[in-house]
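Input record, target 12 of the design panel.
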């Protein structure tokens, strides 16, 4: 008798996505036919050289840009068809966003920054009360809840930003170079937290990164070039160690991009 096959749900589906800037003579094909799914519970990485279209892709997913062609579906629903109310809900609570430079508001405390999405989107106090202590404990940010961003370290700021991304309980967290402004030690600490949120708490994460170390926490990595996916790596669980996976990522970067540090 065969084992049970568990079909994971597709949280995000990117289908034939194209984004062209400019007109015929001087057109840039920033996205040139991207198709991929992010499965429930997956930690998906996206890597690629500067200018390959990563930011354009995330901007389309965040609905800051309208694709020239193609669709993005969240839990099977085409986000291109959302009216204003559903778009606000999508941006505010169905996706969580983690930025490279934290994007905390300087005049709000850690606690106020974290709960801002709930205040903006009119969520009940109870939801916050339930989830906040667990996030605060897990992300080790209790000490900074009453501090302002200027009084926090980079690592603390990014963990506060992670709590803000997660407090509305989004279906997927989009992380755009989340370790880009952190030193090596803080980058590793953040990645361990994101890894735990994925493995222990089942959070689905889509992360763009230039950093092979950060990428080595991903269960799967898509490599982009000129607006399309041209390579994919998957960590072989459980037999492949993170170190061996890291070596494979470096090899792929070197092979595909010429040298690992150009990503
Ligand atoms: N608003 C725009 N108008 C015209 N061209 C654009 C615009 N935004 C991006 N591009 C072009 O689209 C391509 C992809 O840009 P994008 O910012 O998505 O790349 P990226 O992979 O995020 O780069 P980086 O890693 O440097 O942030 C580039 O050639 C860029 O010059």
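The sequence produced for target 12 reads:
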């Amino acid at each position: 008798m065969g084992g049970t096959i568990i079909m994971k749900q597709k949280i995000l589906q990117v289908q034939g996505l194209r984004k062209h800037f400019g007109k015929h003579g001087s057109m840039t094909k920033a996205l040139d036919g991207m198709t991929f799914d992010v499965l429930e519970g997956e930690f998906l990485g996206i890597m690629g050289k500067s200018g390959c279209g990563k930011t354009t892709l995330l901007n389309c997913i965040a609905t800051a840009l309208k694709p020239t062609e193609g669709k993005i579906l969240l839990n099977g629903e085409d986000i291109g068809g959302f009216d204003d109310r559903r778009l606000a809900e999508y941006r505010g609570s169905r996706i969580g966003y983690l930025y490279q430079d934290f994007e905390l508001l300087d005049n709000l405390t850690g606690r106020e920054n974290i709960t801002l999405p709930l205040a903006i989107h009119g969520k009940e106090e109870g939801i916050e009360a339930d989830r906040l202590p667990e996030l605060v404990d897990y992300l080790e940010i209790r000490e900074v809840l009453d501090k302002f961003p200027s009084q926090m370290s980079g690592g603390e700021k990014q963990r506060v930003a992670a709590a803000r991304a997660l407090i509305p309980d989004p279906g997927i967290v989009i992380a755009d170079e989340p370790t880009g402004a952190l030193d090596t030690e803080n980058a590793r600490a953040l990645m361990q937290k994101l890894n735990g949120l994925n493995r222990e708490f089942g959070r689905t994460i889509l992360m763009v990164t230039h950093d092979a170390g950060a990428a080595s926490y991903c269960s799967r990595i898509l490599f982009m070039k000129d607006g399309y996916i041209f390579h994919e790596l998957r960590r072989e669980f459980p037999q492949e160690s993170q170190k061996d996976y890291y070596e494979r990522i470096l090899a792929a970067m070197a092979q595909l991009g010429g040298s690992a540090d150009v990503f």
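Residues 21-22, 28, 30, 48, 50-56 surround adenosine-5'-triphosphate (CB under 6 Å).
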